[in-house]
Amino acid sequence: MTSTFHPPLRTLMGPGPSDVSPRVLAASARPTIGHLDPLFVGLMDHVKRLLQFTFQTQNELTIPLSAPGSAGMEAAFVNLLEPGDKAIVCQNGVFGGRMKENVERCGGTAVMVEDRWGDPVDLDKVAEAINAHPDAKVLAFVHAETSTGVRSDAQQLCALAKSAGMLTIVDAVTSLAGIDLQVDGWSADVVYSGTQKCLSSLPGIAPITFGPDAVAAISARTHKVQSWFLDMNLIMGYWGEGSTRAYHHTAPVNAIYALHESLLMLEEEGLEASFARHEANHLRLVEGLSRLGLDMAVSECHRLPQLNAVLIPEGLDDAAIRRRLLSEFNLEVGAGLGELAGKQWRIGLMGCSSNEININRCLNAFEAILKD
Ligand SMILES: Cc1ncc(COP(=O)(O)O)c(C=O)c1O
User: Fold this and answer.
1) pLDDT one-digit tens code per residue, 224-234
2) Cβ neighbour number for residue 68 with a 10 Å cutoff
3) How far apart are CA 157 and CA 96, in angstroms?
4) Is the separation of the CB atoms in 21 and 265 below 8 Å?
5) For residue 244, what is the enclosing H or E element?
6) Cβ proximity of 204 and 68 under 8 Å
7) Mean pLDDT along residues 164-173
């Protein structure tokens, strides 16, 4: 016999999804209307404007893709790259590796700039790679590496690429709304994110923005975009301004209600206030962890406030502790990813999860378990 699924009320302090506020959940439960209903079309326009505010951009092509952050990454690469193109890809964690995979699947060549997992992207190495490969079309990097908790200098990386006439692809899945990200101010060309991190909305949507140079590069393509679903030429017809929308796919209507509500909440709080809250709560958490004898994995100047990588002390059983946090405290924290598995915990303070109650709950739970 099947029965309705009733999930427990967890505290989500992993690498995402983050806690979704009751206000956003309530928005998602409102009646579904048609995705071409004039009222929904009006909502789409408002969501686009709120995303422009969030990305700090005037880019017309700023939309929520109906698919998760990975599709945002894929959309960036398949639209900018054509077979034979070269891209410089920075890797300092898991997600740079996925970028390489995307370049190769587009028929392009990835020139890798590698840094130790736990360090930011090295600007000097990137400058060297740009000098050595002036024919590269794209520089791609992750602003906030969720796998390591490291922030890279997106502003300087964009400046390096621009001065060499290259386009940038910026992964802002974890950075958007948690730390400053100025798409126009930094001249970033394609920037994508996810709804389940610092926006604290339902997972499964990828906000993305394309600047004028990126749009020009897409228009100048000589090969069709290899993905029908992610071809921006087609998606623009669906998300374009006004009432003449061409059917492309069926938008996840209720998830867009949720995104709209979470963006309204962000607008009410203000971007600067959101960044400041993430920073203040990060400092609170770090102080509490240090009282428990737990050390951070990333040097202070490169830490992300929304993703705190903590070194697991010698002799502790990572999986057993996370199991106890979940079963006894209803608390989710993240495991180390890739080569950091078993060595680090990743404690997320993203969006609605970034609050004092969560921090105290997390510290009390760790204290109780570590005593045992
Ligand atoms: C930096 C980064 N890029 C891309 C992704 C992929 O996003 P999604 O899991 O929504 O597909 C993630 C997800 O954690 C991420 O942290």
Assistant:
1) 999 999 999 99
2) 16
3) 14
4) yes
5) none
6) yes
7) 98
Is the C-alpha dihedral spanning 11, 17, 18, 24 positive or negative?
Answer: negative
How far, in Å, is the centroid of ligand 1 from the Cα of 283? 24
C-alpha 214 chain-centroid distance: 20
* Interval 24-29 mean pLDDT: 98
Report CA(2)–ligand 1 centroid distance (Å): 32
User: Over the chain, what is the mean pLDDT?
Assistant: 96
72-104 pLDDT, tens digit per residue, is 999 999 999 999 999 999 999 999 999 999 999
Instruction: Give, using CA atoms, the residue closest to atom 10 of ligand 1.
Output: 69
Q: What is the pTM of this model?
A: 0.98
pLDDT in tens, 240-254: 766 567 889 999 999
In this predicted structure, what is the pLDDT of residue 116?
A: 97
pLDDT bracket for residue 203 (50, 70, 90) = very high
Q: Do residues 354 and 19 lie in contact, with contact meaning Cβ atoms separated by under 8 Å?
A: no
Q: Whose CA is nearest to atom 9 of ligand 1?
A: 69
Give 169-172 contacts, CB < 8 A, sequence gap 24+.
169/76, 169/77, 169/80, 169/87, 169/99, 169/138, 169/139, 169/140, 169/141, 170/140, 170/141, 170/142, 170/143, 171/73, 171/95, 171/99, 171/140, 171/141, 171/142, 171/143, 171/144, 172/55, 172/143, 172/144
> Nearest Cα to 369, choosing from 330, 315, 328?
328
- CA 202 to chain centroid, in Å, comes to 13
Write b or e for each residue in 319-352: b if 16 or more Cβ atoms lie within 10 A of its Cβ, otherwise e: eebbebbbeebebbbbbbbeebeebbbbbbbbbb
- Out of 65, 74, 95, 170, give the residue to mutate to test ligand 1, the one with the largest number of ligand atoms within 8 Å of its CB: 95
Q: Is the pLDDT of residue 50 over 70?
A: yes
Q: What is the pLDDT of residues 277-291, one digit of tens each?
A: 999 999 999 999 999
Percentage with pLDDT > 70 across the chain: 99
CA distance 8 to 285: 25
